[in-house]
Specification:
Strand content: 25-35%
Order of helices and strands: EEEHEEEHHHEHEHEEHEHEEHEH
CATH architecture of the largest domain: 3-Layer(aba) Sandwich
Shape: elongated
Number of strands: 14
CATH superfamily of the largest domain: P-loop containing nucleotide triphosphate hydrolases
Structural class: alpha/beta
CATH class of the largest domain: Alpha Beta
Largest sheet: 6 strands, mixed
Oligomer: single chain
Strand order of the largest sheet: 6-7-8-3-9-10
């Protein structure tokens, strides 16, 4: 089921065209990453999906309804990069205030606040005034707010900002759990390592245009159809060894540095077992064989570099 759709979407601020002909489709329970340089249009796109902004032209639909439709209000949550909480309130008071806006029954609100604050490690600070919170604590409070109304669609703008490694891991666990519960989550982030093993799908945006969008593996293959295999041998390779290695299907671009060899393999073709057999047959010993897949950051840099 398609949850978020954008059709020929444009957004202008005066003479500045922030988004240009954006077409996007995100399915139910997807964890979708939105990446791009500063000023690419990521936050503008999130605000259009949330219904906070209106498009100059084109259309956005959420849960089959126009973005900002009253029927989506209780089903969608948007956490901006900087959310200003009433600092004179305690964390608990602020969350109860927002739960009242969502018409969440008080017993349900209290239960959700307790569950989410426990998951985000903020339970001991809930009764302190927000004015005493650190940047990381404010971010964790924002994440509790984002899931407080048990939304079907969650939009997160730089959700890991200010979080230390422990709470970044807790955030990942929370997002994966919500995805398993059929929640659809769109995450904008410039910390690409945080999205590496988290998102199911990905959109790369630059200068207001989508460069690539699709499943994570699909996008990676588009910009780098190869992986690198690093081999360390017990002795220097002979010419015969290298000739036999070249005969293995998919092996290309062999580079030798002493006892170390690097070969290029097609992205979907793992022939490590065949390479191991060849090494042993030729009476060599592999001290290590390591596959290095291209990282999301490398894909991003290549994609944006090609665009520019």
């Amino acid at each position: 089921m398609t949850i978020i759709q954008a059709f020929s979407l444009r957004k202008c601020y005066g003479n500045l065209e922030a988004l240009k002909n954006i077409n996007l489709q995100i399915e139910e329970s997807e964890l979708h990453g939105l990446v791009g340089p500063n000023g690419a249009g990521k936050t503008t796109l999130l605000k259009l999906i949330a219904g906070v902004l209106k498009p100059t032209s084109g259309e956005v639909k959420v849960l089959g309804l126009p973005a900002g439709h009253p029927q989506t209000y209780h089903k969608l949550s948007f956490l901006p990069e900087y959310l200003n909480f009433p600092r004179h309130l305690t964390g608990r008071e602020a969350l109860l205030f927002y739960s009242d806006l969502y018409d969440i029954p008080r017993p349900d609100a209290l239960r959700r606040i307790d569950e989410l604050s426990s998951q985000m490690g903020l339970e001991e600070a809930l009764d302190r005034h927000i004015s005493s919170y650190s940047r990381g604590m404010l971010q964790r409070l924002g994440l509790i707010y984002a899931f407080l109304n048990d939304p079907e669609v969650v939009l997160l703008d730089e959700p890991a900002t200010g979080l230390d490694p422990t709470y970044r891991m807790k955030l990942k666990e929370l997002l994966k759990r919500k995805s398993r519960e059929k929640r659809t989550i769109l995450i904008s982030s410039h910390v690409l390592s945080e999205l590496e093993n988290l998102v199911d799908s990905l959109t790369i945006i630059s200068k207001g245009q989508i460069i690539a969008s699709g499943g994570r593996e699909e996008v990676i293959r588009r910009f780098s159809p190869y992986n690198l295999l690093f081999i360390e041998l017990n002795k220097l390779p002979t010419e015969k060894f290298l000739r036999e290695l070249e005969k293995i299907s998919g092996v290309s671009d062999i580079k030798v540095d002493g006892r170390n060899i690097v070969v290029r393999l097609p992205y979907d073709d793992d022939v490590r077992e065949e390479i191991s057999r060849t090494i042993y047959t030729l009476r060599f010993l592999p001290l290590s064989i390591t596959m290095r897949k291209i990282s999301l950051e490398e894909v991003y840099l290549k994609a944006v570099g090609e665009k520019h």
